[in-house]
Please model this.
Amino acid sequence: MRGLEIPENANVLVGLGKADDAGVYRISDDLAIIQTVDFFTPVTDDPYLFGQIAAANAFSDVYAMGGEPKTAMNLVGFPSEDMDISVLRRVIEGGLDKITEAGAVLVGGHTLEDAELKYGLSVMGFISPDKILTKKNLESGCRLILTKPLGTGVINTAIKGGLASKEVEETVSRLMAALNKEAAEIMKRHTVCACTDITGFGLLGHLSEMTKGSGHGVRISADQTPIIPEALEYAGMGMLPGGAFKNRAFYKSMVSFSRDVDPTTRDLLFDPQTSGGLLICVKADEAQDMIRELMDAGITDAADIGEAVAGDEKIEVF
Ligand code: CO
Ligand code: CO
Ligand code: CO
Model:
């Protein structure tokens, strides 16, 4: 964070200076803890599903660092004047189910009176200090694997506009509520140099974060990048979330598109994701195996979308 002076500490292995998915603090030579926190306002009318999505999203940064979630705490903003307490109960039940699925335990939390409902988790996880996966550790020739399709921002905008079908709403809710747990387990069986998860900055924003200061650029195939088909349809009708415009304005100077990438696809590559997939940088000769294992685990949208190349810190989309 610019302007703030953070005292140095030798046990902080990943801190604010490096701006990664989560902070990492060394406890001993073979154990470090990962800490992260995330909460937001509802992305669906279903309180139970909202709880699941917010929790899955909060765990994602632990998985992106290569870690294993251990404990979680609830963070709740609740408008008790306008909302029945049973709504909050369902939200927390949804979160609790994801905490259990992640193999973690709920150890506490805090609720405050708020104008609108907010929910999320603070999460602590374990990792071995020599296994930490940072964003910027790209290696030349490695392949980039994306584990969930893009388009949740567009679909959520279409849902709010009353345009999305019930079917699409269900598909996208399922996607957002899915933990990145299995993808992370498969990732750990391979030679992986870098990883992050795709959230608010969109694919191209997160790729910018990975490449900046890494001494590497990336080449991305738009055709190979998994996108929810209905998201392309709705984006073509102008259903773009504000975040997509912000991401484009902020990151476009780092991106060059080849002429045959159509405008709607470009928009989707900037679409902010809620609880998106992992973006994994894996040794090229293991990429095929990793994709097959992801498919076998039911992560059927996983795709090899491009590669890291030494040199200019640029994103080329072709
Ligand atoms: Co992240
Ligand atoms: Co986060
Ligand atoms: Co990481």
User: Anything to note?
Assistant: The CA atoms of residues 142 and 283 lie 5 Å apart.
